[in-house]
TrEMBL record:
The gene is hrcA. Belongs to the HrcA family. This is Heat-inducible transcription repressor HrcA. GO terms for biological process: negative regulation of DNA-templated transcription. One of its GO terms (molecular function) is DNA binding. Residues 60-295 form the Heat-inducible transcription repressor HrcA C-terminal domain. InterPro entries: GAF-like_dom_sf, HrcA, HrcA_C, WH-like_DNA-bd_sf, WH_DNA-bd_sf, WHTH_transcript_rep_HrcA_IDD. It holds the Pfam family HrcA. Keywords: Repressor, Stress response, Transcription, Transcription regulation. Negative regulator of class I heat shock genes (grpE-dnaK-dnaJ and groELS operons). Prevents heat-shock induction of these operons. NCBIfam families: hrcA.
Amino acid sequence: MNVLEKTGLLYQPHTSAGRVPSDSGYRIYVDQLITPSEVLAKEVETALQQRLHWEDWSLEALLQGAAQILATLSGCITLITMPQTTTVLVRHIQLLQVESGRIMLIVVTDGYETHSKVMDLFNQPSASEPEPEVIDRELQIVSNFLNSHLRGRSLLELANLNWSELDREFQHYSEFLKNSLTELTKRAVSPSATQIMVRGVGEVLRQPEFSQVQQVQTIMHMLEEEQEQLWRLICEEPEIEDAGKPRVTVRIGTENPLEPIRTCSLISSTYRRGSIPVGSVGVLGPTRLDYESAIAVVAAAADYLSEAFS
């Protein structure tokens, strides 16, 4: 125990208290020592299937119902965003050489908005670089190739393309294109915040971590009046697992950038329509929450909502 405290994995909240895990301690626990509960994941899936009626309910009622089920099963505040209703589509792509080795990528969307990004085509100078005239001709060919493959697709899809499909003749462009389009997607896609369904507040606020009135007030204010900040946090795109599914994101204590929830843990993932993320599901609770169960609940709910929306 002494070693754990010295390495920062345990700490003493105040002089009369025992030792409790620090945020770093919980991080090691989550990353290395737990396996999400498959039993609870199956329970979540079964409950959602049995108690939600997609044919008869409105979309808002469905998501409210899902949020209530998750709050009951997890014992945490549950947050589910309404799905995005608009998707930015690619209308035209053009690659232009602006100077030696410097290429501008231009993307025109279906709303006739133009986004551009200038990058180096070659990572480092080489004596074997093609002549500028040759690069211009090849860029036009690549532009035509990209338009034929990407026109009408959403910007969000560009970040998850199978780049191995590019013709071998253009392989020396693929890394440049991948980096450019991924970076452009991050800059150009600015989804508008939608309503967040919030359930389970009463149960969580009875926990000892929330005994201070001021802390409760700041959390409630954020949930009611500052949802846009919270929306941007839980809607950040998680990494993709090897199986192609979005990974669950776990933010513990001070890892949360929003001050009102820096004593909490936020677990979230996206739900999708096909390959396009349209909304998020998450749970918010004290840092000592049951991570195995909470992660399983979020993952199962995201998978269920993705299947339903697809």
